[in-house]
Every structure is written in C-alpha cells, then in structure tokens.
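Researcher: We're teaching a course module on how sequence relates to structure. For the next exercise, students receive a sequence and then see the predicted structure as tokens, so they can try to spot secondary structure elements on their own. Here is the exercise chain.
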Amino acid sequence: MSPAATLPEVLSSTFRSDGILKPQKPSEGIPDVSSNPSAVLHGAKDLRIENRSTKPPGPGEAQIGVKATGLCGSDLHYYAHGRNGDFVVREPMALGHEAAGVITAVGDGVSGFKVGDRVAIEAGVYCGVCRLCKIGRYNLCPNLRFASSAKTFPHLDGTLQTVMNHPARLLHKMPDTCTYEEASLVEPLSVVLHASRRAQIRAGQTVLVYGAGAVGLLACLVAKAQGATTIVAVDIDDTRLDFAVKEGFATGKHLLPKGPRPATPQESLAGAKKTVEGIFEAVAPEEDGFDVVFECTGVESCIQAAVHAARPGGKVCYIGMGSTNVMLPLSAAAFREVDLLGVFRYANTYPEALALFGAGRLAGAEKLVTTRYPLSRANEAFETLLRGKDEKGGLVVKIMIGAYDEQ
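Model: And here is the predicted structure for the students to work with:
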C-alpha cells in the first residue's frame, strides 16, 4: 500500500456510557491529516498546543491517529522541571508514551497492517543489531530512542499528537474487546509484566507491593492474574489503599506512618526494618515474609524495607525509579538468599499484555483511569497530575489525554 493511503473518518470518537473509548468502526469522510495539534514541551511548565505539520509515513512506518495517551511520572517530571533526572529537554518535544490509536496510512514495505487497524504503540525504538537486541533484551539497547525522552538528541517526539508516524514493527494489534484506554495501559503494564517474569511468580505465592499508584496497582493485577493468593499493598496514602482493596486489586493493605526523613543512613536502615515488622504484625503475623516484593516507589526507605519484607529465598523487584544511591542491607539479602532484581522498562511483553486484556484476565484495570482530558486541555491534565487530586478533591490514579469531546 502506498504512503498516501488514508482512513475514512476514524478520528471522530465514540464512547461507552462511562466515558471509555469504544472499539470503533470507520464512518464516512477523510480525516484532515494536514494539521496535527500536539502538546509540545518547551521548558518547565511551558507546554504549548501547537499545530504541527504532518508527513506521510516513511518506509517501514505506519501513520497512527492517536486515540488515548496515559500520563506517567516521567511526563510529569518533564512538565514540572523541564527534565527527568539527568535528561534535560534541549529542544521542543511532544510528551507522552503510553498510547494507542488507529492506523491512518502505511509506508512502503509494511506488511501485516492495514488502514483501520487498532494498535497499541510500543514507544522504545531499538536498533535491532546490537548484542542485547539480538538476544531479545532490547530494553537494554544502548542505541534505544524512547518517545518523549530527552535522553537522546535530537529527541524523539511522544504520543501527545493527533497524528504520528512510528515503526510498524513496534505496533501491536488490539483484541476486538480491548478499548483504546486499556491498550494505553499496556505500556505501564509491560513494565510490571517484565518484572513478574524476572520474579517468576507462581500460583499460590504471596506478594507485597510498595506503592499504590498506577504501576503498583497494575503489579497487584498481574500478581492476581498469575495466581498469587495474598496480595498486600503498602502506601502512605490511605485513600489509595482503600481504592486498591475496594476495587479488588489487593487482598490486604498496610498504611505506612509518615514522619521526618531519617538523619543518617543507619537511622534509615533501622526505620525500614521496623516498618516491615509493623507490616508482618498487621497483615502476616504467621509468615516469615513474602515470596515476591514489588518496590514501585523509588523511595529509599521502601527500597531498604523490601529486602526485609521478602522471605528467605524470596525475590525483590525494583521497579520504581527515584533514589539513585541507596545504602542496602545486603547481609539481610545474602544470608537469606533473597534475590534483588533490577527492572528497566520491558521487552517482548506487548503481545502477552494485550492477550491478558483480550482474555478478560485483567478485570478492573479500566478503573485505574480516573480522569480524562481532550488534547486541547493538556495543561490542565498535567496540573491535575501535579496536584494528585481532581477539581473536586477526588482521587487521581491514571489520567488519559486523547480524542475526547471538549468539556
């Protein structure tokens, strides 16, 4: 099919009664791909809606009308500070990388896709020729360019665009029963799925999850889908914990006490061990720890506590990105053979993640989407994410920006 292939009227949106985008059928008409409203970051809190030009997809690429993009912590760091850790925005960059949409055109050499296919967009463009790519660990590719990341320059624009081109090899067809919002959740879900593979979760195991944000709740769902019988969520926000239990993500919860930051590393280590004793007393008094611990906060005290929370022979997966240099209780891990596993993004997870949605094994995942904005109100969306509460003071878990009606 030629690069000029277009899709009849696919950019109009229809919704279920709860506001979630439905699987769509094309209606009559040709979409206007000559304009491309996009949310482009120029610096800290300088997010502009710009009408960018569009171009036909190149060889090996497809053009996608983006339907939904979920906002995540890295997006927020870029918005609030103009940087994410060491990665500083050096040129205008469209944000967003948790996305799904519909193919509006395909470039030369593309097979297996056609105009109208609904797809989840895998955001990391790996080289495919280095040693790590060849052994299937392309998430560690030294040449990887990630959408909406300032790590590489020129930056690779993200998915907060109306139309974008992307390598067809990184597009994944959605099951008929999967919504665009669910397909957008596949990106953070993939991080957790990759972690669960590394931890080798088995049916009947017990799981502890530090952090009841979107990633932590997805970790709970994956553990549940893989047969874990006890899933305990831990957080400093009781509202999030109540949500986790009430909506069926976790079987139990524990509220961590808030307090001043430890003055010394030794004080931090001692406090971390004490909090774990509180968890055991409250939710697992007869256990010697949890089979698998997912650390999804990146907070130093939780990183330390996770080691003590794992049972002898257990595993800790470090998913959260936050503290860079942490003093760990390594003897507590080594003497009890607790495996400490790093997790960086994901590889080869999208097909399985979409299959889980298609088979209905992630029931309740749609409840993570608590707030929705059209692209034109992207600044409001980021300010809401920054506050952590909606305009009525309600809980915000996952915010979606996309092809929603103006409100």
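Model: If you want an answer key for the exercise: The longest helix spans residues 180-199. The chain has ten helices and 20 strands.
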